[in-house]
Amino acid sequence: MTWDVLVVGGGHAGIEAARAAAGMGCRTALLTGDVRAIGRMSCNPAIGGLAKGQLVREIDALGGAMGELADGAGIQFRILNRSRGPAVWGPRAQCDRALYARLARERLEATERLAIVEGMAESLLEESGRVAGVIEESGERLFARTVVITTGTFLNGLMHTGERRTEGGRVGEAPARGLSSALARAGLRLGRFKTGTPPRLHRDTIDYDACTPQEGDDPPAPFSFRTKSLPRRQALCWLTSTNARVHALIRENLHRSPMYSGQIRGTGPRYCPSVEDKIVRFADKERHTLFLEPDGWDSEEIYVNGLSTSLPEDVQRGILAAIPALSRARMIRPGYAVEYDFVFPDQLALTLEALDLPGLFLAGQINGTSGYEEAAAQGILAGINAALAARNEPGFVLDRSEAYAAVLVDDLTKKGLEEPYRLFTARAEYRLLLGVDTVVPRLLPHARRLGLVSEGEYAEAMRSEERIRDAERGLRERTFTPSLENRRLFEETVGVDLAAPTTAFKLLQRNDLSVESMALISPELFGTLSDEERRILENRVRYEGYIRREQERLDKLRPFESRPIPAGFRYAGLPGLSTEAAEQCTRRRPRTLGEAARIPGVTPAAIAIISAHVARAEGSPPG
Amino acid sequence: MVDSAVLDTIVAPATPAGRSALAVLRITGCLAASIARRLAPRLPDPIPARRPIVAVLHADDGAAIDEAVVTLFPTASSPTGEDLVEISMHGSPVALSRLLDAAMAGGARPARPGEFTERAFRSGRIDLVRAEAVRDLIESRTPAAALASARRLAGALSARVSRVRERLLSAAAGLTASIDFADDVGEAPPPEVAAELREAADALDRLASTWRAGRLLSHGCRVAILGRPNAGKSTLFNALLGRDRAIVTEVPGTTRDTLEAEVDLGGVAVTLVDTAGLRATEDRIESIGVSRAHAEGERADAVFYVFDVAGGFAEEDADALARLEGRPRLLVANKADRLGAGADRLAADADRLGSGAGALPDGAVLVCGLHPHAGETLRRLLTELVAAEVSTESASEMLGTRRQADLVARARDAARDALVALGNGTSPEYAATHCDAALSALADLVGETTSEDVLRHLFATFCIGK
């Protein structure tokens, strides 16, 4: 038989891709080397964080699984940047690693039209310039209209612990050897990156008195709009730190770190660096924070976030011995670095389909990203697009002003990649428009159109947004006149002199009034809004001007940003266009002037020239 | 919008029309070299770069046009960023016109105003501030204005702007770090952010304040001389100019129409306007003159209000002066000689009258327009009145256009807003939007993100061939 969509890999990208494709009605297969490894967290047992948490909410609003899985497996929930506005809230959940994987597998097994197949992809099947499936190591052929490859760090994976090297993408799992060369044979350029993991410690061997406890939020907030409530019970995490002795020890042994000895050639991420990297790069810092994160309710493992390293085991033991809280800790598994092949993602369209091999989609760490969330976001977009392609329908591409997921994919496919890509809020031009408070109204309508949420779910989820909008309208309509009675009420309740007739909306914009104090004056203004909805409303009202200006900026740029460049537009030989700009544009095939402008080497002058020729090609005056 | 024409080869005379010793014609674009070869087939092949070559120019039918000097500036060294050919020929309008026709037959089209500079800007050779300076230099009316433009053209202002951008970028990075790395660096934006923003806002404010002087240098200013009939306005006008431009008689109402002349005062091109004496009159011609005088009073950047000190400051003078409230003005008590003793001293070194001086109003300056040194005194007074900023600013870079001034003011306000937001505990993502706004105003300033409408409008104000 021929599958509509064949997903290779059962990690965070593969899960989302397979579920989205099946959810859109495609007969889908997920090929994995080991069904027990589905949804395995190879790095830290946590989902979300700054910018990443926003991404999880986006995946959720597109009908993805990650939010619900994290809600189900979460053992501690926190919103980072909680003291800031909702635009930069970063929801994060510490998860039970084993539970997460089990929930993920159950979820896949319960998905209609989705088959899970055990096996390793060895090479690609091609037919008349299109991908037609994969050949397994066993020689078996799987035919498919579209193939989504989500093999993470497994392509030629090589693990380093000090001088010791082991082939594999994760401890105890074999690497994918054949696929790398198959991709290269298909004409794709590959690069090599590395990423690291810290040692795992036994929970009963840590001196918690020497640590600072870190509690979850009370009440915890879920990722998914579908999750109605979370259990109150939460696990504790603990903070400790490195010190001068640790730093000295690392410096003495730097030559034994594969990164520094030259044994690892791949580039590591600047933003999630190994501890040896941190000590070299931030030489003046006296200590670095370490987060001790439990691996699950029943797990004995503690993950030492912040101590990722590829130093030899004996040095790792020395480091632990030099940290008071960990001096007697037993190491269950030493930290190690993984080196792996990735595909330069500028060879992909915004749909994540290979520009030169139709039907082939790539998503996740194979595209040079770091992080589960970045992988899952690409996974769902690749799955949706693979399904659309299998049905011969046009691709699904979000705008940078619409989702962090779009910023991620646009950056990957248009800009260069020199290190593993991690998402930051700063990567978005319109940070204030991309907050978690607006995810549902921004993305859920797309999910409904694609058939990834039901009408019932849609209506239910939009209700919160409607409540906030209704309350906002109510604030605008309610005017307090400075009657004697009102003046006394304001003076006595909130210490504000009500001098002139003022709407509740205007009052809430004052720095000395808040939803809480306004609720004392007039509780019905906020009706049944939850605490989170109240915070969102307060911010929308207070920073109305900011949000409006951001929207205006977006509207101003849109005509340029969205001006289309016809498919097959010829850049070579355009008078005045630099060879570099012409080559870059030819290779990356921007669809709009805005996309072209983000390509490295494409200057404003080049854009002017392209714009002029696009206009000429269309025979219309340029806009 | 970019006109598709931006990519064509363009041609234009670079010298003014009319007969002259020399005329210069420039061609730029991808066809420039091939057109040069077509015009002068005997040029060496390839045409050597940046070397003047004497060659005979021919029309398409082979008929000679002129003997001229032809220089090719290839893309790498061309100010427009494309091949540019410069032809220096004899200044014959007929020959020039034949050469233009021949160049167009070779595929060039006539350049729009400012198109050569526009190409220099588009190719990244110069930023927009420097492109504007090209025009300002050409249009400068005084040596000081030319100097200020030349400084901008050399990049002094651009460099100053880029230093401010560095500060704003560093502030933006600090704000961003406190958002994106809150778990590592802590939630409070680093203290340098406020310092950088303050420095940036102050630097932008200093820059914005140079516009008062810059505007005077670029646009000059208009000074009207107003007063009742026979106050001696035309005498002062002539004295200021240092020549007898206006007719002066004893007859009140001699000046009926307004009269203009330009004078360089401290680097500012000042247009002086002599006007008809203000009075109610039945004379139709004179009454038109009087209403023109009032109109000039409204329009002028500054006013010399003159009265006859012997005749005294009348109620009509007070009324006329009241209409000029809020505008820079100087009250001139003329005909000091009629006061008798000490007149010479007064004319040479004008005295401000205190309130004790009888019927004369505060701040009036006693002058004798007929004194030989009166012109000098008056020019000094006028310079103080309208051009004081220019002398204090002349040592530094100045803003040259309204566009620049608006954008610098916008950037300054945004930097201040960011500072306020930071100071009142607003979450840093909001301060970051102000910081972005300041940066984007400066990106507009140097032309990185300037809208096509603005660019088209701007280059249209250039002369053809530049």
Characterise the protein shown here.
The complex is a heterodimer of chains A (623) and B (466). With 623 residues, chain A is an alpha+beta fold. Chain A has 21 helices and 22 strands. In chain A, the strands form 5 sheets. In chain A, strands 1, 2, 6, 7, 8, 9 and 20 form a 7-stranded mixed sheet that branches. Chain A is globular, with a radius of gyration of 26 Å. The mean pLDDT of chain A is 91. Chain B has 466 residues and is an alpha/beta fold. Chain B has 17 helices and 13 strands. Chain B has a 7-stranded mixed sheet, with helices on both faces. Chain B starts with 9 loop residues before the first strand and ends in a 6-residue tail after the last helix. The relative contact order of chain B is 0.13. Residues 1-6 and 343-350 of chain B have low confidence and may be disordered. The chains are: A alpha+beta (623), B alpha/beta (466). Chains A and B meet through helix 18 and helix 21 of A and helix 6, helix 7 and helix 16 of B.
The 3D shape of chain A can be described as: globular
CATH homologous superfamily classification of the largest domain in chain B: P-loop containing nucleotide triphosphate hydrolases
Q: Helix and strand string of chain B, N-terminal first?
A: EEHEEEHEHHHHHHEHEEHEHEHEEHHHHH
CATH class of the largest domain in chain B: Alpha Beta
The residue fraction in helices of chain A comes out at 25-40%
Number of helices of chain A: 21
Beta strands of chain A, count: 22
Top-tier CATH class of the largest domain in chain A: Alpha Beta
SSE order and pairing:
The complex is a heterodimer of chains A (623) and B (466).
Chain A: E1 2-8, H1 12-23, E2 28-32, E3 46-48, H2 52-61, H3 66-73, E4 74-80, E5 90-95, H4 97-109, E6 114-118, E7 121-127, E8 130-136, E9 141-149, E10 158-161, E11 164-167, H5 178-185, E12 190-196, E13 200-202, E14 212-214, E15 237-241, H6 244-252, H7 258-261, H8 275-281, E16 289-294, E17 301-305, H9 313-321, E18 331-333, E19 337-343, E20 360-362, H10 372-390, H11 404-414, H12 439-450, H13 455-477, E21 479-480, H14 484-494, E22 502-503, H15 504-508, H16 515-521, H17 531-542, H18 544-561, H19 579-588, H20 593-597, H21 604-618
Parallel strand pairs in A: 1-2, 1-9, 2-6, 9-20
Antiparallel strand pairs in A: 3-5, 4-5, 7-8, 8-9, 10-11, 10-19, 12-19, 13-17, 13-18, 14-15, 15-16, 16-17, 21-22
Helix pairs in contact in A: 1-10, 2-10, 2-12, 3-4, 6-9, 12-13, 13-17, 14-16
Chain B: E1 10-13, E2 20-28, H1 32-39, E3 53-58, E4 64-73, E5 84-91, H2 93-105, E6 109-110, H3 115-122, H4 128-139, H5 143-154, H6 156-180, H7 182-185, H8 191-219, E7 221-227, H9 233-241, E8 259-265, E9 268-274, H10 284-299, E10 302-308, H11 315-322, E11 329-334, H12 343-348, E12 351-352, E13 365-366, H13 374-386, H14 388-393, H15 402-423, H16 428-446, H17 452-460
Parallel strand pairs in B: 1-6, 7-9, 7-10, 10-11, 11-13
Antiparallel strand pairs in B: 1-2, 2-5, 3-4, 4-5, 8-9, 12-13
Helix pairs in contact in B: 4-5, 6-8, 6-16, 8-15, 9-13, 15-16
